[in-house]
Design goal:
This protein has helices at 2-29, 36-48, 53-60, 64-76, 98-118, 124-140, and strands at residues 80-84, 92-96. By secondary structure, the chain is mainly alpha-helical. It has one domain: Orthogonal Bundle (Arc Repressor Mutant, subunit A). The protein has a two-stranded antiparallel sheet with strand order 1-2. Strand 1 and strand 2 form a beta hairpin. The radius of gyration is 17 Å and the shape is globular. The termini are far apart.
Length: 150
C-alpha cells in the first residue's frame, strides 16, 4: 500500500510543480521578449539543432499549428532563421540565430542557478532517483528522454 500511496503522491505533485516551474520561468523571462513556450522552442533548437516545424511539434508535444506560430513569432524577433531543408525542397528547417543562441544560453544558465538553489539540500542519490522516476513516467507517455549530459 505504501508504494501505491507514493505513486499517487508523485502524480499529485507533478501538476503543481509544473505550474510552479512555469511561473518561475515567466518571472525569469520578464524583461525579455519571449514567452515560456517560445523559450521551450529555443531550448529545443539549441539542444537538437535546426528542425522542421513538424519535428519541433513532435519534440515539444504540441500541435503543428502551435509550433508554426511559435516559429513565426521567433523568426519575427530574429531569434530563429529559415534554412534550406536538404530532405525536402519545399519545406524549411529553422535554426537559432546568434542572438537566439545567446538568449537561450543565458536563460538556461539563470534557470540552472535557481534550480541549484532550490535543490541545494537534496542528496545526489535523491536527485538521481527523481530523474529515474520522471524518465519512466515520461517514457510511458511518449515524452522524449533527454540525456543528462546535454
Amino acid at each position: 500500500m505504501a508504494r501505491e500511496q507514493d505513486i499517487k503522491a508523485i502524480i499529485d505533485l507533478i501538476r503543481p510543480v509544473f505550474h510552479g516551474l512555469y511561473a518561475a520561468s515567466e518571472a525569469n523571462l520578464r524583461g525579455l521578449s519571449i514567452s515560456v513556450p517560445q523559450r521551450g522552442m529555443l531550448q529545443c533548437l539549441l539542444e537538437h539543432g535546426a528542425q522542421t516545424v513538424p519535428m519541433l511539434a513532435r519534440r515539444l508535444l504540441v500541435r503543428r499549428q502551435f509550433a508554426l506560430r511559435l516559429v513565426n513569432e521567433l523568426e519575427a524577433k530574429q531569434l530563429v532563421a529559415r534554412e534550406p531543408n536538404p530532405a525536402h525542397k519545399r519545406s524549411h528547417r529553422f535554426g537559432l540565430t546568434e542572438p537566439g543562441s545567446r538568449m537561450i544560453t543565458e536563460v538556461l544558465a539563470s534557470e540552472a542557478s535557481v534550480s541549484a538553489l532550490a535543490l541545494a539540500q537534496m542528496q545526489d542519490e535523491d536527485i538521481g532517483a527523481a530523474v529515474r522516476v520522471l524518465t519512466a513516467f515520461g517514457a510511458y507517455f511518449g515524452v522524449e528522454s533527454r540525456d543528462a549530459s546535454e
